[in-house]
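Researcher: Can you fold this with coproporphyrinogen III in place?
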Amino acid sequence: MLRTADSPLIRALRGDRPDRTPVWFMRQAGRSLPEYRELRVGTRMLGACLDPALAAEITLQPVRRHGVDAAIFFSDIVVPLRLAGVEVEIQPGRGPVFADPIRTADDVARLTAIDPARVAEAAGPIRDAVGIVVAELGDTPLIGFAGAPFTLAAYLVEGGPSKEHLRARAMMHADPDSWHRLAGWLAQVSAAFLSAQIAAGASAVQLFDSWAGSLSPGDYRAFVAPHSHAALDGLGGVPRIHFGVGTGPILADMKLGGLADAVGVDWRMPLDEAAAVLGADTTVQGNIDPALLSAPWPVLDAHVREVVARGRAARAHIVNLGHGVPPETDPGVLTRIVELVHSLDRSVARQS
Ligand code: CP3
């Protein structure tokens, strides 16, 4: 961690305004890169995640190509469940699919009887991959990540991807005891996955609660926030980023009482408004609209400049997209955004 302590990303997470505004992209390691598609031929997604040399190489590809200020570990939110022994596959073009959805109190009891310590025991390939990555990255930080309990439950309870996550949201109210047992267990599983990445050298972590925006503020506070807090608590001094989509109404709750050093904001809320809600003790991350990655460059250029300008209202800003890189994105556009963000800092520095 000392190696990366003065990097723009880690400084911004601590609340400093480094000379260079850090920029990275969610889903930067993946299908937008031809070199990724080439490496993945003949290997299933979860197989790739559990092959240390392959996962390390895929993690490093976007850092070499784009000059981003951080790597995000190539893995998936369902990997720790697979490590715990849960039967799950990732179907191309669809997402995670579970052989046995967790719908009843009995299902929850059976699942949560698995000792979360199994994740740490089975995480050898994760630790090996992270070790290879950090040795190559030098002073560029690696961000470790995990899925938040609600987003994981949204897949587990449904058995696969869903639009409104009705079954998970129904369980909260129909059987709150089972819900809390399930979410509490998922928090331990995600915490074990994060700990493995940190032990092997990750310098920061991000908790993905991608679908938290589907919850009412009352449900978020009562049924979800305590479990997300548990997933991120007890990781030592490693800085934490908390991300969700459509979280405008619950943005202040996403701070998790100050546990999150940075909160991710999607494209629906301007960053100066988000900064006003989050206050002076939280860094903002975001919020380029992924839809504009396919717009003519002058349109995207103006949008990125506006994002950076509004981000100045926060104590510190990490430039990112409001959600992941769409697979059809021209990777040259991502490189150009990195160059633009870095050049803007120099021009502002010259003026002051
Ligand atoms: O570059 C990175 O961000 C690192 C790797 C990463 C992946 N998944 C790789 C991946 C990360 C951080 C994730 C997190 C993840 N996985 C989330 C939270 C982030 C988000 O986007 O909201 C979620 C909800 C998942 C579950 C999941 N896995 C989905 C919905 C999909 C897409 C299915 C598809 O094919 O469209 C996956 C598969 C997946 N995870 C891919 C990658 C690169 C694509 C699989 C492939 O290349 O074959």
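Model: Folded with coproporphyrinogen III in place. The longest strand covers residues 142-147.
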